[in-house]
Amino acid sequence: MKFTINSHKSTIIVLALIMMPFLSFSQSEGEVVDKIIAKIDNYIILESDLALAYKDYLSRGGNRNSPNARCEVLENLIVNKLMLAKAEIDSVTVSEAQVEAQLENRMKMMVQQIGSEEKIEEYYGKTLDEFKVEIRSDVKEQMVVGEMQRTITADIEVTPRQVKNFFEDIPRDSLPFYSTQVQVGQIVKKPTMSKEAKDNIKARLNGLRERILEGEDFEDIARLYSQEPGAKNSGGNIGFFERGQLAPEYEATALRLKPGEISQPVETDFGFHIIELLERRGNEFNTRHILILPKFTQKDMDKAVNFLDSIRTLVINDSITFEAAAAEYSDDMNTSSSGGYFMESEEGGTKISVDELDPNVFFTIDTMEVGSITKPLIFRQQDRSEAVRILFYKDRIKPHRADIRIDYQKIKQAALNKKRSEKLAEWFEESKSDVFIVLDDHYKNCQILN
Fold first, then answer.
1. Three-class DSSP category at 359
2. How far is 44 from 77, CA to CA, in rounded Å?
3. Assuming Cys at both sites, which of 39, 204, 284, 363 could form a disulfide with 438, CB separation 3.0 to 4.6 Å?
4. Which neighbouring-strand residues pair with 379?
């Protein structure tokens, strides 16, 4: 359960309409007759936009019986469009490379959740590329809104005294109830390949490179041989990216090429690539690649297991702390910077609700004693490659009412969110006169513009 501040005017929620193009309304839900219900400069809000957003609000646990719910949802939509209009005025933008990276991440999430690209195509009757085209404008708008929010609230901070005052102002019977929380860390070791195995993959990629140089089509070769999940549809094209957004080895290689030139094999954390630079525009560059994933032998895995077993022994014998070992030796960049601990998704603390844990981690610690460390375990990473890890079950917090001694990080984040919401509400009141806003008469009773 999260802290929420129930205030219509002080709380501004930017709705996540990521999957809006995939939703549809059945006849049983009532037919929506579309019309423009709000106009904010060059942006419009349709009746169907409000219907979709309201459905999303209900799916997230919104109160169907609240008399002001639709007005609050409409206000959120208007705030979003106002931010877009003001972003144009204030020159707040996101690059096409950032949009493309976000789209790629969302497509990967879809594949992970549904199982495969083939299942997605079968279920929706659309390819990933078609999905990307459909949601590109929505994703870009969300990113611009997010950038505007960060710009508006960049200087907002809370002191320990303000956190304490915020907590003390909450009625005791309104304090949220937290379910079981745990503190779990990991140290990950990715197996390394022998020189002979690497040379074999590079030879294979050089063979593909020669075929392309002799006249075969790059995209055809990528569709046949690349092991990147989206290559079958994209032909290896990944679009424009800015400096610093791709693996350093990939980027450095790509930026040394001339347009149309194909690189020698290059190794990154994701595997082995040959890269073709298609176009360069200032700080952005457009490439396509063919990826071959590393294939590890049992000997490679055994080396990683033995390495982590020795680290585990050092931690158990108090020769090094788990946190220091994670920072120095873990190959997982997402957790190594936090001492190896999994982070709570919103507040960013290391005490995480059990329902946020990866199921494999949950079922593992369910059989462990607090304070214990597993032996090395082979697991599958998000990119589907195998690695080895040890898990440290540091702490378990029983279900409880919010307590500032235990939940300071969560309470601090709630206080920060409240200040940000108030700042955004203040910004809305100041900015709504800067743009042209017209609201349909049917919604004038919402008092949004008053």
1. helix
2. 10
3. 39
4. 387
